[in-house]
Amino acid sequence: MLTAGVDLAADPAGTAAACLEWSGAGAILRELILPADDEAIADLIVAAGKTGIDCPLGWPDAFVTFVNAHHTGVAPVPADVPAREWRRRLAWRHTDEVTRAATGLVPLSVSADRIGHTAMRCAAIQTVLAQRGHPVDRSGAGAVVEVYPAASLKLWGLPWRGYKTGKNVAALGAVVDGLLEAAPWLDLGVHEDRCRRSDHALDAVIAALTARAAALGRVTRADDLVLARVEGWIALPTQPLGSHG
């Protein structure tokens, strides 16, 4: 079985994609693509059994309704709800709030943060996949699942912060060390050095590992399937990393 992971950015230059090959002995990192363009990502998703994408797969349902109403006339502003509260409903999806409650981490707002640019690219990739006959189920039930590498690392008991950007190579190496200690069955092969130098590469690997957990049914499931198929659903690991080999 193959699982893939994509650390998506608005542009290919900051995007990494990883492919893990699984056997009875564990997993080996067979492919690491950086930079990764839309076609390469689509090809990888089609080839893999399950792919984890580190990017919101959709927008808050309330936000879409609000923007559509504003576009055609007057946006609905509730008179009996504090402004900060109703704006929060527009900024974060249901899955973001569930993730916040479960992990203490606050996902970036797809409607109010710069990750919205990345989500636009992700939407285009979903269109490419649909045109190829592989439509995406945003609840994670199909070949694609939304993941959050920092949350996966935290839930696995591994270092999960302070390793981003090229200035934090030591912290990045510590995450890799912890990962390999927790999962001795994981072989990064010829790509290990790159994972120690690029947080994008490492996050792609974490996304692929979370995709494996999803394929085995060892992640949280959407508690509102109808909404998750519109907004997306972040799959959070429910078992230790060592159980996914």
Automatic annotation (TrEMBL):
Domain of life from the UniProt record: Bacteria
InterPro entries reported in the protein's UniProt record: DUF429
Protein's UniProt name: DUF429 domain-containing protein
Organism: Actinoplanes friuliensis DSM 7358
